[in-house]
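Quick one: co-fold with 2-oxoglutaric acid.
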Amino acid sequence: MYDTLFQSDYPLTDEHIAFFREHGYVRCDDVLTDEELEIIRKGVDQERAERKGIARDLAGSGDDDQHQAEHDRILQMLNLWELYPEIKAYVFGGRIARMARQLSGSPTLHLYHDQALIKEPGPSAPSPWHQDQPYWPSREPGMFSCWMALDDVTVARGCMQFIPGSHQWGEFPPMSFKGDGPALRDYLSDEQKARWKPAPVELKAGSCTFHHGLTFHYAHANTTDHIRRALVTIYIPAGITYAAEEKMANPFVDSITSQKGQPLRGTRFPRLV
Ligand SMILES: O=C(O)CCC(=O)C(=O)O
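Sure, here it is.
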């Protein structure tokens, strides 16, 4: 049904690739057409309304907080590709996967998962400074994400912000999205603190950033009167192995078919390219 969409090549340049490798993130403007954007929004909005899959409030306490009962502060909805043909067409469509392959230089890419991350107008939470790698079941660094803006994003609406070059700093402990964990500043060296220069990336809807799993990133709460919707796709390049109990629990652990130390594979991690 969506066979002709999400296929054409994006003009990724050597500069994009060099920037990604040097800074640990890169922006790519005007990746989706208006028609493609509308189709993805349709799937995301249907899941917001119907909640058929795995969804949670990343900033929620999990207890009966009145404020959260009526409003998710950072709504995360996982693996929409399994539920919505629109999203599957996007995730499996050649354009994004080929961009990801070019940026990473990996001969193959498997999907880890997709996720819609929503900050509605009204009370929302900042996504705290963190790396993604600590949350993932991989032993080696190298997994990475594409963060696609489904709405125009500014700092005040929760665009992504990155610490350039921080993908070279190694893996830190996971940070809490609920604001109740250890403070990142306790882990950073004086040199890292001196190099802590956030780079916000404001984007038009249909533009995206890619970021390495070790790159520190952050997004402000949405303080505007318009929703902030993003669709994230997470990639497993070749050479990444399963860390098993060395890493924290993840929602897909039951679908992992690898033994510890083997290439990270799972029944819900299809090959994309
Ligand atoms: O969209 C956000 O607020 C945070 C996104 C994020 O942390 C990620 O994509 O890894």
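If it helps, The chain has one domain: 14-56+68-255.
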